[in-house]
Amino acid sequence: MEPRKGVPRVVAVLAGLLERAAERGDGEGAATASAFRGRTRPGIAVRRYAERIYRYAGCSPACFVVAYVYLDRLARRREDEDGDDEEEEAAGAAVVGVDSYSVHRLLITSVMVAAKFMDDIHYNNAYFARVGGVEVAEMNGLELELLFALRFRLNVTPDTFARYCAALEGEMMLAGFEDPMPLLPPPPEEEEERRDRARKQDAAAATVTVVDRAFATAQRAVVVEIAQ
Q1: CATH architecture label of 9-174
Q2: pLDDT at 44
Q3: Contacts of 215 (CB under 8 A, 6+ apart)
């Protein structure tokens, strides 16, 4: 289940969760009609679709964690929908179910909204529509549908982010990923600091090697001189 080279593990782990959720949704029978539910099942697997989004959408890996938060909030609303009919009607959007017909649209939309909320620089809806394989008008409608379904609750606190990272890491261990590759890659500045430290350590080791060799040569010269 290891992701393709250059794709962080969080992408594969989230895709695995969504695949299982879609399978459960398929087993439960007909889902509630929503803008996210297509007429046919997309021909691309959820995991490959998630990897495509990461490769071409230019969003940070953290966006996939935030997308997971949003999708979990939708799932929790669905669990609580009984007895909340008036509130659901007032919210202006139906609670979305996940199955093979909706999972791809839910993924691309949640990642796009997360990128807009998390990243300083991000692509527009038209670009995400091309990445996701949907029309621009549909992408715009899906974004509004998600926002209303979430009741515009987009904020994710550091504690919430850490909690969902821990949940994804737990899924990663259960899925049998090999250590020591982390769930999320380090930020660029931390990665550059790590490389700089490694370069300095290599340079120091090389200097020590040169000094050791020079000292050994000097010792041999002294021994030869004494022997003579």
Answers
A1: Orthogonal Bundle (1.10)
A2: 93
A3: none
